[in-house]
Amino acid sequence: MTRKNSKKNTKPKEWEALPFEKNQDLTVTIDALGSEGEGIAHVDGYTFFVKEALPGDEAVIRVMKLKKNYGYARLMEVLKKSSYRVEPRCEVARQCGGCQLQHLSYDEQLRYKENKVKDCFKRIAHFGEEIDTITEPIIGMETPYHYRNKAQFPVGKGENGQIVTGFYASRSHAIVDCEHCYIQAENNDELLALVKQFITEEGIEPYDEENHTGLVRHILTRIGFVTGEIMVCLVINGTKLPHAEHLVDKLKDIPGMTSIGINCNTEKTNVILGPTCHTLWGQDYITDYIGDIKYQISPLSFFQVNPVQTKKLYETALEYADLTGNEIVWDLYCGIGTISLFLAKQAKQVYGVEIVPEAIADAKNNAKINEIHNAEFFVGAAEEVMPAQYEQSGGSMRADVVVVDPPRKGCDETLLQTVIQMQPKRVVYVSCDPATLARDCRYLCDQGYEMKRIRAVDQFSHSMHVETVVLLSKIHE
Ligand code: SAH
What we know:
single chain, alpha/beta, CATH 2.40.50.140, Rossmann fold, CATH 2.40.50.1070, 8-stranded mixed β-sheet, 10 helices, binds S-adenosyl-L-homocysteine
């Protein structure tokens, strides 16, 4: 490692005891990848986090921020490239916050994600080497591009007053114009071009976030990967879209077009969608399939964004649940009932619990259109519904299998307590955050369960996110 002092010595008082200075350039070798996909360099026992750097890179980094034992640095120059470094397909990959890992070869992305999961179990939850034995190979994508079925493009004005659509630059609200996104469905290029044309031709003002003026905020598209059905929905700061018939004329003859509508969001907020939708043409929803289960998806519905990998994720959960047709299954954090319905065909009875009432309405509707009669759904917090139901039953409520698929913060302890009391034979834990997954598995393993199988699924290629399925089973006394 060599050090070079930069021009200015800007060391603030609280940094005086620290071994580095702000704006100091260091030549380092990156030796690991952090949990957010950032490179990590160790210099004299001090840790630097460097965005866009990769393990194996020899690079010049500039110190930006210092804490007691670690700091943040900017990647200035790669002197020698890591053997895992690839040219991102997307020209704006660096500016965009969406893909943190496009510059890392896909095989290495998968290895990184699998290791990240194992590492959480060992480091956070203090499991041992057995984790390596029970971890099955991560399920990657055959073609990790154009996998997303839902896009929400912000609309704004460029420097010359032209309409721009694309994405927000990383950690900002400046819109970077982008006509082709490598992770979105390819149909979006045509849809965006036509909507942009409509906005320009009709002289409609895009929304201005700062002043809360203008009309068109976002263009939402959803695409059924199996059915080919397309939805376009303009999110507007108002209740009426002028010249709507012109927009409909432009879009309606595109093969697969099924739903054209608006969503009204008149609040000054970062939340993209408002509470109400109006259909301008076609149906209020599109239909798609995961496996042989059919789902109706409206602009406001939650639906997994990578349908190809979601199928593999649910198949893994189904395999881990090991159903014979006689089981009672509870699916907690069930969303629109996707996992519940997937399991229902092979179980005796499935109960789903979900906090968002609209999602439960979708779940019930999806059960109906699939003619599934052995799935029942409850609205409420899992950590409230489950203990209440258990108490009401006088402790007799039974589950053979419990599936949980919580948000990033993981399961509430009260819920895990109730699961332990119910003593299901198997718990299938689907997780989008390996750290809270590891914490919750430790809790269950301290109270009568053992880890049997672990498998990561790459649902969000080129991002640092990883989805994991774990099978825990009750230890026989
Ligand atoms: N299993 C579903 C959804 C998983 S996402 C699927 O695969 O599509 C996590 C879900 O948990 C979201 O739908 C969210 O609304 C719900 N949720 C969040 N907190 C909850 C809580 N305390 N109790 C029940 N559901 C909750």
